[in-house]
Automatic annotation (TrEMBL):
GO terms for biological process: endoplasmic reticulum to Golgi vesicle-mediated transport. InterPro entries: Longin-like_dom_sf (IPR011012), Sedlin (IPR006722), TRAPPC2L (IPR044760). Gene3D superfamilies: 3.30.450.70. This is Trafficking protein particle complex subunit 2-like protein. It is found in: Cytoplasm, Perinuclear region; Endoplasmic reticulum; Golgi apparatus. Keywords: Cytoplasm, Endoplasmic reticulum, ER-Golgi transport, Golgi apparatus, Transport. The keyword Nucleus does not apply. GO terms for cellular component: endoplasmic reticulum; Golgi apparatus; perinuclear region of cytoplasm. It comes from Cricetulus griseus (Chinese hamster). Belongs to the TRAPP small subunits family. Sedlin subfamily.
């Protein structure tokens, strides 16, 4: 199961970061931002091959003691980063790919929304409803 998911714009600013509510939420944000260097390295190393093969999944970016960080990049250079608990050995590469495909489809749905301004932060319905309930 993913403990943190991030959507990063082409210019490397976060559009959406969501992590499980823990005491180390800042740690996940740090992991996401440090993984952007690895994403850039992989994209530049693949270069033309990435465009030719249409391979959007970057695979494992780097493992840590407790987590594994995976990456995915769209044709428009928007990056998706997923942090997974490394104790979950049942997750296979194909399952990670399918989670990224679902995330990419959801991102495409947001971009197709005529009321969304490209470049704005993406907010989930759950978070908006939660914030409204806290104000009452």
């Amino acid at each position: 199961m993913a403990v943190c998911i991030a959507v990063i714009a082409k210019e490397n600013y976060p559009l959406y970061i969501r992590s499980t509510p823990t005491e180390n939420e800042l740690k996940f944000h740090y992991m996401v931002h440090t993984s952007l260097d690895v994403v850039d390295e992989k994209i530049s190393a693949m270069g033309k091959a990435l465009v030719d093969q249409r391979e959007l999944y970057l695979g494992l970016l780097y493992p840590t003691e407790d987590y594994k960080v995976y990456g995915y990049v769209t044709n428009s250079k928007v990056k998706f980063v997923m942090v997974v608990d490394s104790s979950n050995t049942a997750l296979r590469d194909n399952e990670i790919r399918s989670m990224f495909r679902k995330l990419h489809n959801s991102y495409t749905d947001v971009m197709c929304n005529p009321f969304y301004n490209p470049g704005d932060r993406i907010q989930s319905r759950w978070k908006m409803n939660y914030e409204k309930s806290q104000k009452v």
